[in-house]
Write a structure and sequence with these properties.
By secondary structure, this protein is of the alpha/beta class. Helices cover 39% and strands 19% of the residues. It is globular and about 85 Å long.
Length: 579
């Protein structure tokens, strides 16, 4: 076996550290470095690099030298915090978090509260004065480890205590969670590496065209406890609204919770105003940090945070996943704010996103007399009609259906990709279902209440995820006019100046090639041959990115279409790739 001597590359905080390579340390650790360099409060951490992940798969296990690196990293955390990993006084617990170079929210594993065992639980109880808190930490960790490391498939979330979680794990996989924290740590790092090749991660990368050998770094970070007391909690803040793009804080807060509670959707948190009411000074500090990260990042940010006994800690900041509508609004507004130039704004909006915006909407008056079956939080706008299914496998087998779940998890992603819309009983606007649906630009309504799955499965419904309502049957829709949208108009104006291609309904320059006049048998999966010397093309096939690329490569000067902006953006993207 080969030996690489430095898998533990980055230590946070390190006042002397230069900007790390995102490819090496992953986006999560890079964001910690960035926040720490701005003077913001983050729990100390160290990072196992993506090189270690590559070596893990090449060698079939943790590579030589990595175990020693993990010990060195933990010793650093112990020294900074005056705590001991596995100690019976002032114990140190850590989170073990994945982090690829390209953000893949929720697709890989994170294990919280690692380092807990019976002795550590007793030490936490003595230190906090709250045996119930210590027992809850132990129960949570046992469940995380049993599910993500040992592969237990039983539902462990609602079991009342550690003993019942242990029994469920043993009954399912006939294994026990080790008491040795070092054994826990090594196995957890390996499990996070393995999660980079999970079914859900593979499906996500395939959908977004992300390289399949990307791997992941692993961030090992000192725990802060949002579930410690009434002055503690956890939340997610978007610096701009990820649904419509308006310049306003958008987020949720859960008192006495950990981050997994918010993201999983199993608990519905409260609006961010709840934090303001409980801790106005912490809320102000959070908004000031968010504004700085937004300005420094020159983009809308998705920020995870924890409050421990009234003290704010930032855990991650990354460019926010957003709907197509939000992408357009944010790009235009950043130009107005003087943060980016129009050319950069055009690179932040894709042709597919514009096509999403131009999807039909419920026709005026059509919903007035329609039966509303359920309603909830409009998490990702859009309209979709289809038959309701209640498993991701059924959704994958029936593309275009409506996937309805109690809540979604990363294991549902393949079904979410196939579904035309997603509806959940539980969760809020920052839950897994909401975030992933926004990334997919799939209509999504969350928090519709208990019994939603049972009442909808098998029915044909229309989901209006702009209003948060689900209607019985199929409702009529109407087309959207892009010329009436001021943001789209401005993007179109900038795009026309960025490419010589003429696009519109009245741009025909002879000779013209009209693909729509070809016999159906000549329009298979391959693009039609464009005759030499053609100056203009028309037809639906030339409005898609592949058709735009083919037209440009053939030297055409104009494309005839009613929707101009998606074609212009596809042309600009092609020029960018080939120049």
């Amino acid at each position: 076996m080969s030996t690489v001597t430095s898998f533990r590359w980055l230590v946070i905080p390190d006042e002397t550290a230069t900007e790390p390579s995102r490819d090496l340390v992953g986006g999560k650790a890079w964001s910690l470095w960035r926040m720490r360099s701005l003077g913001l409060r983050v729990p100390p951490a160290f990072v196992v690099t993506t090189e270690a992940c590559a070596a893990y798969f090449a060698e079939g296990g943790l590579p030589d030298g990595l175990a020693d690196e993990l010990v060195s990293g933990i010793r650093m955390l112990e020294k900074q915090l005056g705590r001991t990993f596995g100690g019976t006084e002032r114990p140190l617990l850590v989170s073990v978090r994945s982090g690829a170079a390209i953000s893949m929210p929720g697709m890989m594993d994170t294990i919280l509260d690692l380092g807990c065992n019976d002795a550590v639980e007793a030490a936490l109880a003595a230190e906090s004065g709250d045996p119930d808190f210590a027992a809850e930490v132990h129960r949570r960790f046992t469940g995380f480890y049993g599910r993500l490391v040992l592969g237990c498939t039983d539902d462990l979330e609602d079991l009342p205590d550690t003993a019942s979680v242990r029994a469920a794990i043993a009954g399912d996989v006939d294994e026990m969670v080790p008491a040795d924290p070092w054994e826990q740590l090594r196995a957890a790092v390996a499990a996070v590496f393995q999660s980079s090749r999970s079914r859900r991660a593979v499906a996500y990368r395939k959908h977004y065209g992300i390289p399949d050998d990307l791997g992941t770094a692993v961030t090992v970070q000192a725990m802060v406890f949002g579930n410690l007391d009434d002055d503690s909690g956890t939340g997610v803040l978007f610096t701009r609204n990820p649904v419509d793009g308006t310049r306003e804080p958008y987020g949720e807060y859960l008192q006495r919770g950990q981050g997994e509670d918010v993201v999983s959707g199993r608990v519905t948190p409260k609006p961010l105003t709840d934090l303001h009411e409980r801790w106005p000074t912490v809320h102000t500090e959070l908004l000031e940090a968010a504004d700085r990260l937004d300005r420094e990042g020159k983009d809308a940010q998705d920020i995870e945070f924890t409050v421990q006994s009234g003290e704010l800690f930032l855990l991650q900041s990354r460019p926010a996943k957003r709907t197509a509508r939000a992408a357009v609004r944010i790009a235009v507004e950043l130009v107005d704010e003087g943060v980016i130039e129009p050319a950069e704004a055009l690179s932040r909006v894709t042709a597919d996103q514009i096509r999403t915006l131009l999807r039909p909407e419920i026709a005026a008056g059509a919903a007035d007399s329609a039966e509303v079956l359920v309603s909830g939080v409009a998490a990702s706008p859009g309209v979709a009609t289809g038959v309701v299914v209640d498993t991701p496998e059924a959704a994958q087998a029936n593309p275009g259906c409506i996937l309805v779940r109690k809540s979604t998890s990363p294991d549902d992603v393949h079904g979410m990709i196939a579904a035309a819309a997603v509806v959940t009983e539980q969760g809020g606007a920052t839950s897994h279902a909401a975030v992933v649906s926004r990334a997919l630009d799939t209509p999504c309504v969350v928090g519709c209440g208990t019994g939603t799955v049972e009442s909808l499965v098998g029915r044909i419904v229309t989901v209006d995820a702009t209003t948060g309502r689900v209607y019985a049957g199929e409702l009529p829709t109407s087309a959207v006019d892009e010329s009436r949208d001021e943001d789209l108009r401005r993007l179109t104006e900038w795009a026309e100046g960025a490419t010589p291609l003429q696009v519109g309904t009245d741009v025909a320059v002879e000779p013209v090639f009209d693909a729509d006049t070809l016999p159906a048998e000549e329009l298979g999966e391959q693009l039609p041959d464009i005759p030499s010397g053609t100056k203009t093309v028309r037809g639906a096939i030339f409005c898609a990115p592949d058709g735009v690329r083919a037209a440009l490569d053939s030297g055409v000067d104009a494309i005839v279409t009613a929707h101009r902006l998606p074609v212009l953006l596809a042309a600009i993207a092609h020029h960018r790739r080939t120049s």
